[in-house]
Amino acid sequence: MNRLTWLCDGVNRAVASVIRWLALFMVLIQFVIVLGRYVFGVNSIAAQESVLYLHATLFMLGAGYTLLVDKHVRVDVFYSRATDETRRRIDIFGHLFLLLPSMTTLLYWSWPSVRNSWKIFEGSLSVGGIEAVFLLKSLIPAFCVLVILQSLSLLIRLLGQGRAA
Length: 165
Hints:
Shape: elongated
Domain Tripartite ATP-independent periplasmic transporters DctQ component: 26-159
Distance between the termini: 17 Å
Low-confidence stretches: none
Subcellular location: Cell inner membrane
Oligomer: single chain
Keywords: Cell inner membrane, Cell membrane, Membrane, Transmembrane, Transmembrane helix, Transport
Subunit structure: The complex comprises the extracytoplasmic solute receptor protein and the two transmembrane proteins.
Structural class: mainly alpha
Organism: Salinihabitans flavidus
């Protein structure tokens, strides 16, 4: 089981090490867009859409890593005051009955849209936009898979803690 958790964690660490650079590229492109528009009077829809694509990629593919390092948003009405054992039980419940089912459902229901988008190589609705909406839609199943992998890894650890206690 340790090997499986190591593998799942490794996938999200590898993805994060690549996509972290997207934040820098996104800022640089946005700077060039603003400079071009307000200083030189030049505008590019494709450049504007590239910021959207980078932003979506950064957040969708970074979600699994965010879960790994425990920096995700947590509604801690009860969690902050709970004992370690209660926190472990809340986390197990959250993974089993909230996170994994919702990711599986999203993966299942988004797949036809992604498949159809790839069939027609769906492009931008805007004239001059990036002709790769099919790639943008592909982030949805990738997001689901990365979060599912990380959730399973964390769930294995949590269940292992229960046996050790």
